[in-house]
Design a protein that fits this description.
homodimer, seven-stranded mixed sheet
Chain lengths: 532, 532
C-alpha cells in the first residue's frame, strides 16, 4: 500500500498544499535534495489547526476509553500498512540504516499498543472516592470523587534522532492522545516526508475509529511555526525533545503567555558511567568494547549516549584504554542526521580536544563521505573536570570524556558535581557494593534512571521506564517522556463534590468503579472482574 | 503545658534570637501591638537553614516509611499539647474566633494524620516492576523498577488566612514532609507568635522521633527573607498560598535560578456559583441565606469565597435578591486579618461599586471597630461582565457580584468566559439536569472542584479533594494543595535497571512489594496481607 508524499500541511481532515514559501528535505548520506518540497506552515495554519483541536477537545476527551484505545491501536496498524515505503523514506532522510528503522518502527507501534492497554486499564485516572458521611459531627462529609482529566490540545515537537519513536506518532503524541488531548505536531525539518507518511497513517486511523476532526494535525515548518504554535491560546501543553537551547526557548515562550502552560522538554544529558574498581579489574576489556558500541550506536545520536565515564587510576586502567583505542580505531564513522548536526558535532568535539589538560585516547577511522563525524574519546583528571564547566556540556554525537579519579572519594565528589541527567550507569562486581551503596543516593538525586552493568542507550518502552531527570536533563523533573507514566504530563485532577449521578463522568459511577482500580475511603480497590 | 514565644528564628535545633532588625505582631481586632518582637531572618539565616535542610535530606528521605509517618503523627500530638495557649495567641493575632481556631486546629491535626496514613500505605510511591525477560528476541528485557523519590528541601510560605491549616504545619508542610522533603517555613508576618508555637511543637516532634537536624526550620521574616529562600540553591521546590502578585513574583524568581525549580502557588479564585432556574424557583430564599453565610464566613477571607454568582432573570429573581439584602443587612462585619488586608478589601469593594453598570444590591451593617470591612453584594448583567475584565478580579474579603443572565445560553457563555478557578458550584434541581449537563464539560475545564447544592468554603481534607485549578487559580494546574494527592508535588520518578538487590531501595525489593500496592508487568497488584 502506498501513500503519496505531497508536501502539504495536514490540518485535521484538510490538505493544505505547499505554497510560495517551501522547504526541502535532504539525504544526509549523499547530500542530495529529496522531492517534493514542503509547505512552511504559517501563523494562519497554526491558528486553524489549534482552533480545530480546541473544537475537538471536549468530544475527544469524553469518548469511551475503549474507543480511545482502539484509535491508538489503529494508528499502529496504519503505520505498519505503510510498509517498506516508510522505511525507505526514513532511511533516505536520516542516513540511518534500514535495520534501525525497522526496529524503531516496531518500537513506535508497540509504544502505541502499550498506551492503548494503559488507557483500557485506567489506573492513570487516579480515581478516588470518599463516600458521604451525612451523620458526621460537627459537619457532615460530602460525597467526594476525583479523576484526572485531559489538559487540552498539546503541541508536539519531534526530535531529529528518532524520526518515528520520538516524532509524529512517537511517545509524546501517544501519551497525549492517551490522556485525551488532541495533538498538533510541528513537523521536524530533518524528516519531513517520513513525518507526512506517519501523519497520514494517523489521520487514516482517526477516520476509521470515528475520531472528531481536529484530533490531530501535522504542520511541517520552521522555528516561526513552532513559536506561533506555543503561543496559541488553545494550546495547553507542549512536548519537546531536542537541544537545551531549543527547549529553554520554548519554556520562556510558554511562561510569557497570558495563560502560562507547561513545557515538557527533554533537553540534554551526558549520561555519566562509573566503572568501579573490581569490575574494571575483572572485565575491563569487555567494558571497553561495550562502551565503544554504545558510544558509536546511531553515530552517537542518542539522548542517552554515554558522554562521560569515571574510572579509577591503577594497573587496570592502561589495558582498558588500550582496548578502547583499538576498538574505536576499527570503527567506521556513519553519516549524521543533518549537515547542521554534523557541523555542531565537529565543533564540539574539536573544542573538547582543545581544552587544557584534556588528551585524546581513542579515535575512529577517518570519515569517508559527507556528514560523517569522526568519533573520539578524551581523557582528563577529576580536578580538571571539577574546574571546567565546559567539560560537562553535551556534545551531540560520538564524543566522550573519560575522567580518571584517584580514589573512591573522588568518584563520589564527581557524582555530586554533575548536573541533572537522564541516566547514570554503574559497572560493578559484588566487591564494589560498598562503594556503589555510597554512590546510589547521589545518583538518585541526579538522574531519572540508574543502570547496573548495562549501557544507557536502548530505552525500553515500559510501565516502569523513566526517561526524564533533574534540570537540565529536562525542564520538568517530575515527569518522563517514555513509558506509561508519560500520560500524567497531560492531565490535571478534578474533584466532584455531591454531584448527582446523572452528571458524574462514567468512570466515577458504579459501573466505572466496578472496572477500574481506585482508592475508596483510603483503601486501594482493584476490581476482580475486569470487562476488558 | 506552655511554650514561650521568644521571637527567635528556629534553625534546625538552634534558636537564633531577634537582633536589631525586628518586626512586631498586631491584634487586628484592637489595633494593639503584641509582644515579643520577632527576628527578621536575614540571608545568613536562610543559608544556614537551607544548608542544614540539604544535609538532612538524604538521611530523612531514606528513613523507613513508618518512622516518617510517626513523625507526622507526633507533630499532631505536640500541636494538641500546646493547649489553649495556641488558641489564645491565634485569636489575638488574627481576629478570628476561638471556635474557628479550634476547628482549624482539629483540621490541621487530622490533616497530619491523613498524610501519616498515606505515607504508611505507600501508593504515592508509584511502585512499578517489569520483570527481566532474558530470552526475549531480538533484545533481552532488563529488570526495570520504578519508584518516586523526594525532590529536596522545600520552602513553604504560609497564608495569612489559615494560621494553622495553611501555615507552619499546614498542608504544604505536611505533604512535603510526607514525601520525604525537609521543610523551611518562611513565617507569615500576620501570625508570627502562632507560627513560632507551632514550629516549636514540630521541632519537639522531630526530636522525639529521631529526625535529623535540619528536617525543619522556621524563619520569621519579610519579603527579602522569602526571596533569599527561593533563590537558595539547596531549595528544590516552593509551596505558596497567597495573592496572585506574590505567587507570580515567586514563580519568576524560581524560573530565573540557574537551576529552575517548581513553585506550587495557590493564588486567586472568585469561585463562580451558578444558580439554575428550577433551583432558584424552588428554593431561592434558602440559596440566598446559604450564599450570605458562605460569603461572610471568616470575614470573607477564604480562597474559596463565592465572589461571583450567575442567575437567570425572571420572576424568582427579585425575591431572591430581597432575601439576600435582608440577610446581609443583618450581618455584623468581623475584623479582618491585618490592616493591610482590610485596606485592600475596601479599595477593591469600592472600585467594584464604582464600575459602570454595577449596582449595589445588599450591604452588611456598618463596621464598628478597627479593621472591620463592610460586606457587599453587587449586581450587573452578562454583557457588562463580558466586557469588563476588572469584574472578574478577586476582591479578598466579603464582596461578591451577581451577574444576571437572560437565558441558559448566556450561562454557558459566562462559564466559557471566566479564568481558571479553584471551584465552580451548581445549585440545581432535577429539572436543571439538561442545563447542568451542558455546563459540566466547561466547568471541568475551568475549575479544580465542582460542587452541587453546597458552598465552596469549607474544604474537606481528604484523599479525593482537589484544591487547585487552571491558571490563575494556581501556577501548576496538575496539582492540589489539599488532600493526599498534594504529596505528588514534591516527588520525581526514578527507574532502576538491573540494579542488584543489595542496592535496591527497600520498597522495590520483595519485602516492600509484599506490603505496598504496585504495578507489575502491567497488572495492578494489591498485597492482601498488610503489615500496617
Amino acid at each position: 500500500m502506498s501513500e503519496t508524499i505531497t508536501g502539504a500541511a495536514l490540518i485535521g481532515r484538510a490538505d493544505v498544499p505547499a505554497a510560495e514559501t517551501r522547504m526541502t528535505a535532504y539525504n544526509p548520506s549523499t547530500g542530495e535534495e529529496l522531492s517534493p518540497e514542503f509547505r512552511i506552515s504559517d501563523e494562519a495554519d497554526v491558528a486553524r489547526a489549534a482552533d480545530l483541536a480546541w473544537g475537538a477537545f471536549d468530544t475527544y476527551r469524553q469518548l469511551p476509553l475503549a474507543q480511545r484505545a482502539d484509535f491508538l491501536s489503529a494508528i499502529a496498524a496504519e503505520i505498519m500498512s505503510l510498509g517498506d515505503a516508510l522505511i525507505q523514506r526514513a532511511v533516505a532522510e536520516t542516513g540511518l540504516g534500514a535495520g534501525r528503522m525497522e526496529t524503531e518502527r516496531t518500537r513506535t507501534c508497540s509504544q502505541l499498543e502499550l498506551f492503548a492497554n494503559a488507557v483500557r486499564r485506567g489506573d492513570w485516572l487516579d480515581l478516588r472516592v470518599e463516600d458521604a458521611m451525612p451523620d458526621r459531627r460537627p459537619l457532615r462529609r460530602a460525597d467526594l470523587r476525583m479523576r484526572q482529566i485531559a489538559l487540552g490540545p498539546v503541541a508536539v515537537f519531534g526530535s531529529s534522532n528518532f524520526p518515528l519513536a520520538f516524532s509524529v506518532a512517537g511517545g509524546d503524541t501517544a501519551s497525549a492522545l492517551a490522556a485525551g488531548c488532541p495533538v498538533v505536531v510541528k513537523g521536524h525539518p530533518a524528516h519531513l516526508g517520513t513525518g507526512e507518511l506517519v501523519a497520514r497513517a494517523l489521520l487514516k486511523a482517526a477516520a476509521l475509529t470515528d475520531m472528531p476532526d481536529g484530533v490531530f494535525s501535522y504542520l511541517p515548518g520552521e522555528i516561526a511555526t513552532g513559536t506561533a504554535l506555543v503561543k496559541h491560546r488553545h494550546i495547553k501543553a507542549v512536548g519537546f525533545t531536542g537541544s537545551r537551547g531549543g527547549g529553554l526557548a520554548l519554556v520562556a515562550l510558554a511562561a510569557a503567555r497570558p495563560e502560562p502552560i507547561p513545557v515538557y522538554a527533554e533537553m540534554s544529558s551526558v549520561n555519566p558511567v562509573f566503572v568501579l574498581p573490581a569490575a574494571l579489574w575483572a572485565r575491563g576489556p569487555a567494558i571497553a568494547k561495550g562502551y565503544v558500541g554504545s558510544l558509536t550506536l546511531g553515530a552517537g545520536q542518542f539522548c542517552t549516549n554515554p558522554g562521560l565515564m569515571f574510572v579509577l587510576d591503577g594497573p587496570a586502567l592502561p589495558p582498558f584504554l588500550q582496548v578502547l583505542a583499538t576498538e574505536l580505531g576499527e570503527t567506521e564513522p556513519a553519516p549524521m542526521l543533518t549537515s547542521g548536526i554534523h557541523a555542531a558535532f565537529e565543533r564540539g568535539r574539536d573544542a573538547l580536544a582543545a581544552r587544557e589538560s584534556v588528551t585524546t585516547v581513542a579515535e575512529s577511522r577517518p570519515p569517508k563521505g559527507p556528514n560523517r563525524g569522526g568519533a573520539a574519546v578524551f581523557r582528563t583528571d577529576l580536578q580538571t573536570f571539577l574546574h571546567d564547566e565546559q567539560l560537562e556540556r553535551e556534545v551531540f554525537g560520538a564524543a566522550s570524556l573519560v575522567v580518571v579519579c584517584q580514589d573512591v572519594n573522588e568518584l563520589r565528589q564527581a557524582a555530586e558535581q554533575f548536573e541533572g541527567q537522564l541516566t547514570a550507569t554503574l559497572h560493578l562486581d559484588a566487591e564494589d557494593t560498598p562503594v556503589a551503596r555510597e554512590l546510589m543516593p547521589v545518583l538518585e538525586r541526579k538522574a531519572g534512571r540508574i543502570l547496573a552493568n548495562d549501557w544507557p542507550t536502548g530505552v525500553e518502552v515500559a510501565e516502569a521506564m523513566v526517561h526524564g531527570g533533574p534540570y537540565p536533563a529536562t525542564s520538568q523533573s517530575h515527569t518522563t517522556s517514555v513509558g506509561t507514566l508519560a500520560i500524567r504530563r497531560f492531565l490535571r485532577p478534578v474533584c466532584y463534590q455531591d454531584i448527582p449521578t446523572a452528571l458524574l463522568p462514567p468512570e466515577l459511577n458504579a459501573d466505572g468503579l466496578a472496572r477500574i482500580p481506585h482508592l475508596r475511603n483510603g483503601m486501594v480497590v482493584v476490581p476482580s472482574e475486569r470487562s476488558d
